[in-house]
Amino acid sequence: MAQKEKRGKDDILSLLALSRIEGIGKKTKRELLENLSRPSVLFEGEVDLDPALKEKILSFDQWKALEKELTRLDGMGVEILTIMDEDYPALLKEIPDPPLVLYKKGPLKIHERTLAVVGTRKASQIARHLAEKISCSLASLGITIVSGLARGVDSSAHMGALREQGKTIAVLGCGIDICYPSENLHLFKRIEREGLLVTEYPLSSRPRPFHFPERNRIIAGLSRGILVIEASERSGSLITARLGLEYGREVMAIPGAVFDEGWKGSNMLMKEGARLVDGVEEILLTAFPDVRWERPKVGEMTEKEAHIYSLIGEAGTHVEEIVERSRMGAKEVMAILTSLALKDLIREREGGFFFKA
């Protein structure tokens, strides 16, 4: 769709221009637009403003460059969504500093049944498995998985959603024409074809360190709930979670071992107000109580899952005993136990004990 068919070209150019002006905060920019019927009047010099603010706005002189960029975006199939458009995401508009302009590419429409799945870039095998399985299960129920296309948990979440031909949104910390990290190019292209790429940064914007905290506010803003899987104390995903708490979102965390540094941030979040969840059912009850879900039956387990399930006694069985009796590797057993937990067939309790649900 040509950008001018959706909103007047002058208004789109004006919003792009306002979004590029430095020295004016995001909140101030939003306030400037609140009582205007069209943003282009800001650049006509007729709005009563603080003189310094007015000078910054009227000194913008990159109009020809913006026109060329608009033409290029149309040619690339990139759509511009502005804060003044009717289909701007309502949840995102609620946050204190929503982006004035979003660049988006892909067939997916943004709706409100969205869950952010985030976590560490240095994800363990268990965390990657959890992210993929949970996202796969939720995507099969029509929930859109939102994440940041980073290594580790983010990538696994996107892949899990796509595995069920489900919906996923990747929020980028760079221009929409740049894949970062480059190793995710195949995933980037697949989301472009089947899901949605979203960013607030102009074409050719390289990823910069301060972009990612800004990107995280969009992830939190787009999502009804936020699930954190494996985060250390310094993980960027904690920014997303804490913003979610500020925005009144349902923030959830999967608990990890108490002394495992990789899960320390996740465990800390639960002290700050995040809800402990250990399966799909609890995630749905917390963030999507309107979504109906039927717990998988024992007969729907794979052969290996059924074998591990049979080793768990009614009074609970320790993981070391399960590994020993299974005659399988510890990593494989843990992956199967995770899968059974996600199907809500078993529960893990403190000390490494597993119980049948």
What's the domain count?
A: 3
Give the terminus-to-terminus CA distance: 50 Å
What CATH architecture of the largest domain do you see?
3-Layer(aba) Sandwich
**What's the helix-strand series?**
HHHHHEHEEHEHEHEHEHEHEHHEHHEE
Number of helices: 16
| CATH T-level fold name of the largest domain | Rossmann fold
Helix content: 40-55%
Give the structural class.
Answer: alpha/beta
Strand content: 5-15%
Main sheet makeup: 9 strands, mixed
Strands side by side in the biggest sheet: 1-2-6-5-4-3-7-8-9
Looking at how many chains there are and whether they match, the oligomeric state comes to single chain
Low-confidence stretches: none
Tell the overall outline. Answer: elongated
The CATH first-level class of the largest domain comes to Alpha Beta
Whole-number mean pLDDT = 90
Give Rg in angstroms.
Answer: 23 Å
Number of DSSP-assigned strands:
12
Brief summary:
By secondary structure, the chain is of the alpha/beta class.
Structure commentary:
With 357 residues, the chain is α/β, with parallel strands linked by helices. The protein has three domains: 3-76, no CATH class; 114-287, Rossmann fold (3-Layer(aba) Sandwich); 298-356, Winged helix-like DNA-binding domain superfamily/Winged helix DNA-binding domain (Arc Repressor Mutant, subunit A). It has helices at 3-6, 9-20, 26-33, 51-58, 63-76, 90-93, 125-139, 153-163, 185-194, 211-222, 237-246, 264-271, 280-287, 303-310, 319-326, 330-342; strands at residues 79-82, 101-105, 114-119, 144-147, 168-171, 196-199, 225-229, 250-253, 275-276, 317-318, 346-349, 353-356. It has a nine-stranded mixed beta sheet, with helices on both faces. The protein has a three-stranded antiparallel beta sheet with strand order 10-12-11. Strand 8 (250-253), helix 12 and strand 9 (275-276) form a beta-alpha-beta unit. The chain is elongated, with a radius of gyration of 23 Å. It starts with a helix and ends with a strand.
